Amino acid sequence: MSPAHTRFSLFKNAITIFGAALTTTGAILFLAFLLLELAGMHANPYVGMLFFLILPGLFVAGLVLMPLGVWLAHRRDAAGLTAWRPSWPKIDLNDVTQRRATAIFLASTIANLLIVLVAAFAGIEYMDSPQFCGQLCHEVMEPQWAGYQDSPHSRVVCVQCHIGPGASWFVKSKMSGLRQVYAVTFNTHSRPIPSPVTDLRPARDTCEQCHWPEKFHGDKIRTIRTYADDEANTESVTTLRMHIGGVNRLDKSATGIHWHVSRQNRIEYIATDDKRQVIPYVRLDDGKGNVTEFLADGVADAASLKGERRVLDCVDCHNRPSHTFAYSAERAVDEAIAAGGFDSAMPFIRREAVKVLKVAYPDRAAAFRGIQNGLTAFYKDAANVPKASVDRAVATAQHVFARNVFPAMNVTWGTYPNNVGHSDPGPSSYAGCFRCHDDSHKSRAGKVISQDCSLCHTIE
Ligand code: HEC
Ligand code: HEC
Ligand code: HEC
Ligand code: HEC
Ligand code: HEC
Q: How far apart are alpha carbons 272 and 281 in whole angstroms?
């Protein structure tokens, strides 16, 4: 056998030295970055990808290369010998050099394992961050990211609604994540990203971590301001008292809108289109042994229908809890006027803003130019309209556009219907509650799912 000093010479080969360099650089950069991150400096998603996924990858690759180099060198050295068999190194701990080398080897292995653990943990945490989910494939996720940041859930991480707790959904999501990386890399994904999400985890396991269906909400007042297309942008105010209801703590009775999700009621439905907008069949089991089937006009029974069968849960109404887009340019402009984004003293600002926002622009830059040119041209000769008001109108309209319309992803007004409510009729209208509540889904006994306005809200 070769003496100890030649054994160390096995380490002096190009592959091992390269591996050691990779591992050392990877480890130092990774640890330095981790310290910065712990000190509160948060990187953008691209830098995050470099540090949390690529550097640890280099580190591990180096760790693999080092012994590989030694093994190859060992084989090469031994190639001349006749009776060579792969053999384990003999370590003699009485030899000072070998003892030291073994100690160094063990210590660095423990340190390496720790680094790999920390890196794996940080990598998983990073992949669960909204920045990774929402910003890395910037163009693809841009609509959902924009809606998310503006929503009541902007501090809820994506994975809490999309994956939820537990190992099996984690694995499922990583598998579908791989498919998505493929789709984005090879540009095979659809534009827009389809909704509803297939195989979304049931709301029971996600939303209900924070909201419980028995919570009693009672009534909620909603004030909706709309504006006319006249010179004065005349305002109308509708006040709705929404009967959200829930489960009454005193007698456990379920009432109002959240009656659908009280534990005793189970509503199933069949949707015959892939956006779940056409619902010809509804089945209600009230938990007391009464089952009622409601069928749309002309439908004989459930068996004759082709489509997805689903148990109704939160996301059948709240399908936009986090990615909310205004369903029409009219609605978006009304909201912006109500919020003070436009100077409502500008004559015809409602009509003109809607007009420039409804044009089908090829991309965002063209839209911004079109909005600017359209509004400045209209108010060019208007006396009594300060330039500052026009500039603000342009900026607001551009913001409204960027928040709701995404030409690169084919997302425009009404692309994603919102099932909470029912829209005014129009090109981008949606039925929402009226998918079932249309007075024409009938049970065999002649009962209908009611469209009575005061069932859901009183208008004040
Ligand atoms: C409050 C819960 C919630 C959070 C937080 C959330 N989502 Fe969603 N997301 C939903 C629901 C609900 C749907 C629509 C489900 C359906 O109808 O099947 C959806 C749909 C989507 C879709 C499909 C297209 C669409 O608009 O319907 C994408 C893509 C998406 N989310 C990405 C994200 C990303 C990225 C984040 C984080 C930046 C995120 N989501 C955060 C609840 C959430
Ligand atoms: C991690 C906790 C968490 C999860 C998970 C969560 N929410 Fe929420 N949700 C909140 C909080 C907190 C608020 C209140 C936000 C506020 O008032 O600013 C809220 C508000 C809401 C509101 C009222 C919005 C409004 O405009 O006032 C709805 C509706 C809602 N959530 C539905 C859902 C649905 C549907 C899901 C599942 C897809 C879900 N939430 C998942 C924490 C959560
Ligand atoms: C049948 C449709 C429907 C279902 C199913 C439904 N909701 Fe709602 N929910 C509504 C409507 C409508 C409102 C009132 C919206 C508004 O006008 O602000 C509402 C309001 C809310 C609010 C805000 C309450 C407040 O006081 O501001 C929360 C939170 C909420 N829902 C969570 C949930 C959760 C969680 C589930 C599932 C367990 C669920 N909802 C199921 C229709 C529904
Ligand atoms: C099955 C329940 C239900 C029925 C029946 C119903 N509505 Fe509504 N309505 C809603 C919900 C939910 C909203 C959305 C509130 C919100 O935006 O948060 C809404 C919103 C509205 C709005 C405001 C629309 C907007 O611009 O945002 C008006 C106006 C309205 N309803 C009128 C009516 C009238 C009139 C009837 C009777 C023909 C009626 N609704 C029947 C549930 C219902
Ligand atoms: C999948 C079908 C379906 C959808 C969608 C739906 N509902 Fe219902 N809803 C029902 C059925 C079925 C009943 C029970 C009808 C009956 O027994 O008279 C009901 C009953 C109700 C009730 C009366 C509850 C009680 O106190 O007895 C309210 C309020 C209501 N729905 C509001 C809404 C609102 C608001 C929406 C939209 C956000 C909505 N529903 C969407 C199927 C639906």
A: 9
